[in-house]
Amino acid sequence: MNKYYIVQMSNGDKYGIPPQVIAKNRADYYANIDPGITWQEEYDAMMQWFDQEDYEFADWAKGNMDWSDVAEYAVLMKRGMHHVDLEDCWVNGDHEYYHG
């Protein structure tokens, strides 16, 4: 089953990012600064938040990651109509969770 955190750009493009990429980013960060939590615990928590479509997952992605952190993993799921600023859309665009 493929899962994606989907961000809609202002031109209608929809990009899917595997949630594992975002979960790994947060787990890497907290494993290095918080000795009270393991990398796996943090990763599993993020994946649970994704499955529950919890705000915390999107909050981490938008507030702590840049488009450049996810661009190489992005899958164009729907084509929009014109060119847009992908960095701005990553932070400010609508998002959804795909469990398909």
Quick structural overview:
The protein has 100 residues and is of the alpha+beta class.
Structural write-up:
The chain has 100 residues and is α+β, with helices and mostly antiparallel strands. The protein is built from 5 helices and 4 strands, in the order ββααααβαβ. The protein has helices at residues 19-33, 39-51, 55-64, 67-70, 86-92, and strands spanning 4-8, 14-17, 75-78, 95-98. It has a 4-stranded antiparallel beta sheet. Helix 1 runs antiparallel to helix 2 (39-51) and helix 2 (39-51) crosses helix 3.
Task: Write down the Rg.
Answer: 14 Å
Pattern of helices and strands: EEHHHHEHE
Give the termini distance in whole angstroms. 6 Å
Which range best describes the helical content: under 10%, 10-25%, 25-40%, 40-55%, 55-70% or over 70%? Answer: 40-55%
Q: Enumerate the strands of the largest sheet in spatial order, edge to edge or round the barrel.
A: 3-2-1-4
Shape: elongated
Structural class: alpha+beta
* Overall strand count: 4
Largest sheet: 4 strands, antiparallel
**Average of the residue pLDDT scores:** 91
Number of helix segments?
A: 5
- Proportion in β-strands: 15-25%
Number of domains: 1
Low-confidence stretches: none
Give me some keywords for this one.
single chain, 100 residues, 4 strands, elongated
Secondary structure layout plus pairing:
Elements: E1 4-8, E2 14-17, H1 19-33, H2 39-51, H3 55-64, H4 67-70, E3 75-78, H5 86-92, E4 95-98
Antiparallel strand pairs: 1-2, 1-4, 2-3
